[in-house]
Amino acid sequence: MTSAVSPAADPVALLYGQHHPWLLRWLRGKLSCTDHAADLAQDTFVKLLATPGERAVTLREPRAYLTTVARRLLIDHYRRQSLEQAWLATLAQLPAPVTPSAEDRLLILETLHQIDAMLDGLGTKVRTAFLLSQLEGMAYADIAARLNVSERTVKRYMVQAFEQCILLLA
What confidence score (pLDDT) does residue 2 get? Predict the structure, then answer.
């Protein structure tokens, strides 16, 4: 026999019940797809549950907090969407014999999302140095001049970025 916990006894359930409807409406206004809005609303509360300690139940301004979390998730959503569109545009330009299979496309897209998340975790200059080196093929000296830092600093940035890449592979 299972015992149901009443929303009054569970502060998170109470918070969810009070704030989920308006958050969902707010997200529907930002997105054209109601399914994506529902997913992001759910993800917002998952983030809240993942918050350490009692923060989830002691929020002074729950709407402000939930809106901030939802905005960050929206930014991630739009960035992923942009990345997917760029990938699909690149695929469309490939000749049919070299077009990857549907399974390979999904694997590549998943890897692109992981790389994007990894890059997002880097500092701005570290990310810029890494992208200039790996995508633009710039030499460390040129990157140093562009970022107004020493070449040694660029090497440090690259070590940090490659460490993140290794962690991504692990």
Answer: 52
Q: Which amino acid is at 56?
A: A
Q: Which residues contact 69 (CB under 8 A, 6 or more apart)?
A: 44, 47, 48
Specify the pTM: 0.63
Average of per-residue pLDDT across 63-84: 89
**Into how many domains does the chain fold?**
2
Does 114 map to a domain?
no
**pLDDT tens per residue across span 19-45:** 999 999 999 999 988 999 999 999 998
Same structural domain for residues 86 and 148?
no
Kindly compute the dihedral angle of the four CA atoms of residues 126, 129, 132, 133, in this order, to the nearest 10 degrees. -110
For residue 136, the enclosing domain spans 121-170
Residues 60 and 136 in one domain: no
Q: Give burial (CB, 10 Å; 0-12/13-18/19+) of 85.
A: exposed
- pLDDT tops 50 at residue 1: no
Element (H, E) at 151: helix 151-169
Residue-level pLDDT at 8: 55
Residue 105 lies inside a defined structural domain of this protein: no
| C-alpha neighbours within 13 Å on the C-beta side of residue 124 | 1
